[in-house]
Amino acid sequence: MLSSVRRQAAVLVATVAVFSLGLSALGTSGASAQTTPGVTSNSVKLGLLADLTGPLASSFGGVAQGAQARIDQQNASGGVYGRKIQLAVGDDQSNPNDALTVTQGLVQQQGIFSLMAESAFFTLVYKYLGQQQIPTVSGQPYDGGPEWADPSSHDLVDGAGAQNPNTPNLGWEWLIKILKADKITKLATLANGFSAASVAYANGIKAAAEAAGIQVVDEDNSLTETQTDLTPNAITMKKSGANGWVGLTSLFSEQALMTALHQQGATNIKAVLLGQYAGALLQPPLNSIDQGTIVPFYYKTPEISPAVGGQLVAALRKYTGYKGGSPPPNLGYYFGWASAQIAITGLQAAGKNLTVNSYLNGLHKQAAYTAGGLQVPVNLAQIKQGTYAPAAAGNCEYALKVSGTKFVPLSTQPYCTPTDFYKQ
Predict the structure, then answer these.
(1) pLDDT tens, residue by residue, 122-180
(2) Quick one: which of 8, 62, 420, 67 has its CA closest to 197?
(3) Which of the four pLDDT bands, split at 50, 70 and 90, describes residue 279?
(4) 224: burial class by Cβ within 10 Å (0-12, 13-18, 19+)?
(5) What value does the CA radius of gyration of the chain take, rounded to a whole number of Å?
(6) What is the C-alpha separation between 187 and 230, in angstroms, rounded?
(7) Plot region of 161 (φ>0 → left; ψ -120 to 50 → alpha; else → beta)
(8) Which of 201, 304, 294, 226 is nearest to 58 (CA)?
(9) What are the φ and ψ backbone dihedral angles of 58, each rounded to 5 degrees?
(10) Coil, helix or strand for 406?
């Protein structure tokens, strides 16, 4: 789905400026009188904020199951220092107006210790969480907001590496390699106009593409989250002469554009959907029109690494009743699993004396974090200095292509932006 600005994923669909909720005016009585909310001698409660229903559920249905599977797996081995992990789930229903209310419920009614953020609208609630001293982690922050890369936001830890839309031109070299290998010479971009991050990433890709000799012929930043008819967008893209397009919005919107392009006879325009490892691409009706679609993804799927990706699938089957196979678990399961993994890593690193400070300090000492082997190593001690840029764990992504009813890896090795790129 959304690219991810590095985590693609996401490239978010959140509307930041439009839905400024006046957080400073909300009740912010400060930290709870309890020293460590959500923590007892034998339990710790984590919260999850995600878009589980509504239009964005096409990307995020499975986040809660993925998180629960990883937590159940950990609890089966005794939890962390004798504490069993409890999960409180908050669904913002893909509605920015509900995000704060749901988050307040997790903090004030559920009494969570830490939040796992997999919502397109997290950027609307992080200030409230900071006021309440609730640390937040994410396997792949879907909102893509700049707060994740802000050195002052010590209480936000992004397990895939900081994404910073304020430096949008930095780090897209890995994507250029994929575009060139697929012989895309005239590029179109599709972004969500209400998301500052989505538009910034589109601008960054344009700059990187043009520097590499790829012409950007159509920049479409007009998308809304619930738009279903993209016929005008498809007509414009077809007329532009593009032979490839990059999606930086939700799978919901990208499906609509693929359908519209097909109806317009524009079957020669190749799709590159950042982060959209989704079973829907392998099923009717999309499967008849999306052959050859490239899906960059931050995590090792079973197709890329049967051993690593297979462990996630096995845990889903064991703890959630997941029946797949084919189609594979979509990106939501991976995001949920990865969010739980970084939260568990923080609990382990904190030691027996679990506090907000010991949790965050433990995470920031992780010099080679891999989400349990799912991604390339990320130095969580450095991400706040802007070590990593848009769209990838450690500024690397794997890539798969839709072929028949399967995802086929372009390579079992990730596509990366070299570290010396940052010295330019």
Answers:
(1) 999 999 999 999 999 999 887 877 788 787 888 999 998 765 555 555 678 889 999 99
(2) 8
(3) confident
(4) middle
(5) 20
(6) 18
(7) left
(8) 226
(9) -60, -25
(10) strand
